[in-house]
Amino acid sequence: MKRVIIAGAGLTKVGDHWNKSILDLAVDAATAALKDAGIATPDQIIIGNMFSGFSSSQESLGAMAADALRLWGVPAFKVESSGASGSMALHVADSLVKSGQANSALVIGVEKMRDLEPSEAARATSLGESSEYVQFFGISQTALGALITQLYMQEYEVTRDELSCFPVIAHKNAVTSEHAQFRKAVSIADVSRSMPVSDPLRLLDCAPVGDGAAAVVLSNDDGMVKDPAIEIAASAASTDSANFYQRDDMLEFMATRRAVTKALSLAGISVRDIDFAEINDSYSAVAGLSVEALGLSKMGEGARDARDGKFDIKGKVPISTYGGLKGRGNPVGATGIYQIVEAYHQLVGKAKANQVVDAKIGLTHNMGGIDSAAVVHILRRIS
Prior knowledge:
Largest sheet: 5 strands, mixed
Strand content: 15-25%
Number of domains: 2
CATH class of the largest domain: Alpha Beta
Strand order of the largest sheet: 1-7-4-2-3
CATH superfamily of the largest domain: Thiolase/Chalcone synthase
Structural class: alpha/beta
Shape: globular
CATH architecture of the largest domain: 3-Layer(aba) Sandwich
């Protein structure tokens, strides 16, 4: 099996891109990544995207992106896995390069969300839930987030202010993140007293809607390797029951737990070796349940660890180092690749004001639905 190296990376700012199409965004990020890698023509193009057909009336996104990049002849396709689409695309690309089926692969995560009306955006994000149950009854993704938030707070006696610590961390890091959507710090009081969305969720508990694209180029270690070189030490994915309310333990993110257990085993490390983590903080309670499933906190203690500074940029295990889904933004199909680019920049020492000191191993965690699908990557500096 080949060692898989991140040869280059590129991204766009997350936000309102009214004058750009979904392909324009994909091309911008991909061009930057290919230039950074010094590779003109990759062997494979893989797109991570959730709902281009719904938002942009555009499927066949792989072939369309190859055409827009003038990379005719390069095989290309799209991977969809709800909110985990970007990281699942990388998971597929990692397998192709590691097995030797491709020497290099361009992976693009892209989503166009701001062209949709609010009701359409809610409909789009709910497409990852069961059409026979959740969609049929008109339950939004935010309503599901509220249900699990209520359960989390009751089961573990998490206070409203403790829960608010996750958005506070994300927004603090987003202030100095040049590609972040919301570069403004918030306080615990700001979050706890922000407008109710779906009780007990407040506006500042929820990741925003935004446009964006991010891209990385993977290559095997037979090709050009930079110094420092960053390898994908492990790539692991898992699933669980699509409806969290049908699980034996609704507060156990088993897809995430299985994925991180496998990833740590593949990388030959323990969770104590992780220097920072880019987590799926789509809602404050999901952030808490995620750090617990990843093994960064004990069950029920995630919010209190956030309150006590464990996850601050200078804490024991920094999370959401560029703002996470909450501060950087969450263009859903692209989010997993944004995390990879951010982790890559941390490990090569290009994170500027957001730099985690002496970072050598980073973890990314991307999720579809309420842990219906989870993908964990471990990146490691090797030189």
